[in-house]
Amino acid sequence: MILLLALGVALLVAFLRGGSLRNLADFHLEWGWLAGLALAIQIGAVYWATGDSYLHLQRGALVVSSLLLLPVVWRNRRSPGLILIGLGLALNLTVMVANGGFMPITPEAVARIGHGHLVVHLDGVKRMSGSKGIVLPREETALWMLSDIFVIPQPFPVASAFSLGDALVAVGAFVFLQRAMVGAPSRPVEP
User: Fold this and answer.
1) 8 Å CB contact between 158 and 152
2) Which residues pair with 11 in a beta bridge?
3) CB 121 within 8 A of CB 134
4) Is cis: bond before 188, omega within 30 of 0?
5) Cα 87 to Cα 78: distance, rounded to the nearest angstrom
6) Phi and psi for 153 in degrees, rounded to 5?
7) How far apart are CA 21 and CA 14, in angstroms?
8) CA–CA separation, 134 and 110 (whole Å)
9) Distance CA 140, CA 137 (A)
10) Which of these, 142, 143, 156, 147, lies nearest to 128 by C-alpha position?
11) Whole-number pLDDT of residue 54
12) Local structure of residue 29 (DSSP, 8 states)
């Protein structure tokens, strides 16, 4: 959720700065098709492959979708913001792999964002429906500091929890969209 909010803000700021979607469409992202494939796999894992019988498929699909993004970032690492995106993805992938393929969130964080109704029990695992989240107590979470520990609580309209990795991806995406939509700021010509 935090990434969608960051993307919305980044688009708004870019438009206010005179940016355009045409510039974004003209921006060449090498191996961008891999990013599209990763997104499709992640959407399938989060929204369509639900239920006890798909739990192992979800775990694998979420990890594979994250892994597919790393070569895209590496190939485009010279583009503004991509190093931050890559670092954030690597942190998220690390904590997810350490916790069975899902992003951990504590029951307390779930309560603070008011999403208790989204917790489902699948094969003895508490999952957050419609997300990559797995509900785990802090003491059972490997690499807890990299999990969804930052909370934007209710009554904010977009109450959500996010990780350090998510924050880095959001900042990197903001920087990338500014560059891609607005372009490089012009520099004064030296006399």
Assistant:
1) yes
2) none
3) no
4) no
5) 14
6) -80, 170
7) 9
8) 10
9) 5
10) 147
11) 77
12) -
In degrees and rounded to multiples of 5, residue 56 shows phi and psi of: -70, -35
pLDDT at position 154, please?
80
Q: How far apart are CA 128 and CA 29, in angstroms?
A: 32
Residue 24 buriedness (CB in 10 A; 0-12 / 13-18 / 19+): middle
What is the residue-level pLDDT of the chain in tens, covering all 191 positions?
778 888 999 999 999 999 999 999 988 899 999 999 999 999 988 887 666 667 888 889 999 999 999 999 999 999 999 999 999 999 999 999 999 999 999 999 999 999 998 898 877 889 888 889 999 999 999 999 999 999 998 888 888 999 999 999 999 999 999 999 997 544 444 55
Cβ atoms 83, 172 nearer than 8 A: yes
Which candidate, 157, 166, 156, places its Cα nearest to that of 132? 166
